[in-house]
Specification:
single chain, mainly alpha, 5 helices, globular
């Protein structure tokens, strides 16, 4: 996530989004592994899509995750009000709390 934040601050928005998505993939895999949930052996983006459809993903984290798979517009921008860095940080907090409950 540090690389995502640094890239964002330096104006490399595309790199920042890629780094944030990679961090989310690592988080999702760790969370699924901790719960011993089988998941497909696919690339990171497809894993994020799969996780969105998975019934085990806590409801509160689905909106955050959905931001990570949204397409950019013709100017390479996400919709207004979406910060995937904030979304990944929230996802980290939410899934960590879920892990602590179990």
């Amino acid at each position: 996530m540090l690389k995502a934040k640094t890239s964002w601050e330096e104006g490399f928005l595309g790199r920042s989004r890629v780094c944030a998505r990679r961090a989310a993939v690592i988080l999702i895999r760790a969370w699924l592994d901790s719960l011993q949930i089988q998941y497909p052996n696919v690339d990171g983006f497809r894993l994020l899509l799969w996780a969105l459809e998975n019934e085990n993903l806590p409801h509160g984290s689905k909106e955050r995750l959905s931001h990570l798979v949204q397409r950019v517009d013709e100017n390479y921008n996400l919709p207004a009000g979406i910060s995937i860095i904030d979304d990944v940080n929230s996802l980290l907090e939410y899934l960590s709390i879920e892990l602590e409950k179990e």
